[in-house]
Structure formats: C-alpha cells, structure tokens
Amino acid sequence: MIILALNCGSSSVKYQLYDWANKLVIAKGLVERIGIGDSFIVHEVPGKDTVREEYECHDHSAAIGLVIKTLSRGHTAVIDSMEQISAVGHRVVHGGEVFARSVLIDEEVIKTIEDVAHLAPLHNPPNLAGIKAAQKVMPNVPHVAIFDTAFHQTMPDYAYTYPVPYEWYEQYSVRRYGFHGTSHLYVSKRAAALLGKPAKECNIITMHIGNGVSHTAIKNGVSVDTSMGMTPLEGAVMGTRCGDVDPAVPLFMMQKLNIDAKAMDNLLNKKSGVLGITGRFTDRRDVISCEDSDYKNRCRLSLEVEAYRLRKYIGSYYAVLGRVDAIVFTAGVGENAGVIRQMAIENLEPMGIIVDKEKNLKTFSKHGETEISTPESRVKVYVIPTNEELVFVEDVVAILTNTYKDHTEYPYSFLK
C-alpha cells in the first residue's frame, strides 16, 4: 500500500510518498511560490541527489499536477504509474468542533470544512483547493482529511471556553481550538514509548517550537489544554506572531496608527513576535548568532522574552497536570536550538526538572530521539523530531482497513 500525504499551504504544497508495507519514505518534496510567480519544486529521494526544477504553477491544481508528474514520469519518477497510489491523506488546519478524528472525505466533509473556513481563513481555503485538485487528478482513490485541531477536542469546556459573552461561542464558535495536533500527538506517543508506559498512563508537556509555536498539556494520553486558541495567533512568542498580549493593546494601537482591523491582523500575525522585537530576524539561528551592534541587544531581549514565556507555560501546565512524566521539545527550533531549550528550563530544579547542559547543547534533530535530562531528574526531558506525515499515513491506513476509532485508542505502529 502506497500513501501520498499532502500538506497544502497558501502558496505551497508539501508532499510525501510512503510505502506502508516496507515502512519507508519513497520520496518527499515541496512546491513553492504557487500563484506568485517563479514557482519551483524541490524533490528528494532517499539515497539520491535532491532535484530542484522551476515550473510555473498558477494555482494548486497545477501544483498537484506537477507533484504527480514528478513522482510518476521522467527522470524523477519513483513509481510506474499513479495507479500504484492507494490513497491520499490531506492536512486540514481547522475542523472546528465537528471533527475530533480523521475522516474519509466526501461532499458533506468538504462542505463542513468550507463552513468552518472562517475560523482559519488563511489555511482552510488552500487546504480545500489541494483536496479538490487531488481529487480531480486522482478521482478513483480514497482521500482522507487529517485535522490539526482534532487532537485537542478532548479539552474540557473550562479549558476551551473564553471569558467573553457566551453568545459569541453559541453564535460564532468563539473558543480555544488549538493547532499542531498531529505533531503533539506523534511526539507524545513517542515519549510514552520511551518512558515504557502506555500513553494513557502518561502526563506530558509537549513544546512544538518552530516559526509557529504551541505547547500542550497531555493528561493520561489526551490533550487537556494547549497554548494556541481560536486561531494560531494566541500563545507563545513565535517567529512573526505576537502570542499572548493584553487585548487592549491592538485596540489602542489601531487608534494611534489610524489603521483598520485587517491592517492590525497583519501586524500581529506577520510583523510581531521575534521579528517585532528584533526588527530584523525570524530565524532563531540568526538571533542567537547576531553580533551586529545595531541589533544585538534586541536579539538578546528577544531570546529572553521567548524563553521566559516558554518557562511560564511549563510551570502553568505542570500545575494543570499535577504530575509530569516528561517534557518534549520538537519542531525546527525545539529540536535544534539548545540555547533556547536551556534558557527555557533554567531554574526548574525544584520541580524535578534537571537537564544535562552539555548534552542539551550538543543535541540536534539529526541525532534522533534524545533524552537530555540527567538520571536524577524526576521529569524526563526529551528532544523528539516530529513526524506529522507519518501520522497522516497511519490514519489513512487505519481508515482504509476499518481499524481506526480515534487517536486515544488506535495502536499507532510508531509506538513500538
């Protein structure tokens, strides 16, 4: 069984072709600058040179066509024909309150994704465009939707309810939803395996730190709180997103700058966070290594603000869980920025969190799953490279074989 996993962004398509029988990635890649101009594809096959080719993609349909062509024809081909693909798994960012699990896509599912698109206007439309384009090219195979928000549908009402007029929730679905669900699912299940315990017996804090950042409190194997909210703007400091701020600040600055809600939304999502503080950088490697006298102090401040917020989330989620078995760092920054990890977990020894500083600073994603806590630490601290695409594949296979219930019960193969 060969599964194609697709992750469609506003101007990109990320893909991975997976051989389920042999448990290996056949190929993966990325189409960028869709609809912008100068689009191109980067195609990787394990053991071979990476291929980069320019190809104009005016829309997602053209990009999906390019992916299919790259996988099945010419010098980049890794399969004989598209008939070898058994199913396609699609990432969908927002499922609202409707989807608490991955589902087989039909017209009703597409309509529901469209109905909740107002909750993720930057994400759901391109996700839908990718689904429709792939269905057009591959109409005779099953297509499955995997939702970022599904993992967090186990949150209790007191964790997802905002203290605003309740009618906002009833009429407009205003509540906490959470994101990065497949990443939090994967690394928490892997942490449970490393702990040698069933996931349902583990309390874990997962720290997904990339350009987007979210943290999740996982109690007895399920999400009970998460830092992102109704949108991916709430929570920790991110590359260009502000995270938690006084809600009055945007209103105050809209008056001072004489700008509308759309302009403020752009500032909070694309001009804030690490970029907002440093005035120049979003890549944490640049922030850490900055020696430019004009930016050095602001880079230092950015790191301290980010780490301070991370530490606050660890403390608050420790209080939520009562007992913590493990803390997991994942995603690009979480897996590779030992400096930020160290700053985030400093002075937490009274909570039973003790990290081997030398090992931490030498640990990167290329090292695979790594424990960076000391033997004396009551709480294990892990760096675990995430694998969201594998969750896509597993959910697709489970649905095709009619063995899937939901993420709380399904025995994922990566638990072994």
Observed structural traits:
single chain, 416 residues, alpha/beta, Nucleotidyltransferase, domain 5, 2 domains, 15 helices, globular
3D architecture notes:
With 416 residues, this protein is an alpha/beta fold. The protein is 36% helix and 19% strand. It is built from 15 helices and 14 strands. The strands form two sheets. The chain has an eight-stranded mixed sheet with strand order 5-4-3-2-1-6-8-7, sandwiched between helices. It has a six-stranded mixed sheet with strand order 11-10-9-12-14-13, sandwiched between helices. A hairpin with a 7-residue loop joins strand 3 and strand 4 (40-44). Helix 1 (60-72) crosses helix 3 (124-137) and helix 11 crosses helix 13. The radius of gyration is 21 Å and the shape is globular. 44% of the residues are buried.
Question: What does the average pLDDT come to?
Answer: 92
- Any idea what the shape is? globular
Instruction: Detail the poorly predicted runs.
Output: none
- How is the CATH topology of the largest domain named? Nucleotidyltransferase, domain 5
β content, as a range? 15-25%
Rg over C-alpha atoms, rounded to the nearest angstrom: 21 Å
| CATH-derived architecture of the largest domain | 2-Layer Sandwich
Question: What percent of the residues sit in helical stretches (DSSP H or I)?
Answer: 25-40%
Structural class, from helix and strand content? alpha/beta
Most strands sheet: 8 strands, mixed
Number of helices: 15
Sequence of secondary-structure elements = EEEEEHEEHHEHHHEEEHHHHHEHHHEEH
Q: By CATH's scheme, which homologous superfamily of the largest domain applies?
A: ATPase, nucleotide binding domain
Cα distance spanning the termini = 20 Å
The first-level CATH class name of the largest domain: Alpha Beta
Strand adjacency order, main sheet: 5-4-3-2-1-6-8-7
Number of domains: 2
Number of strands: 14
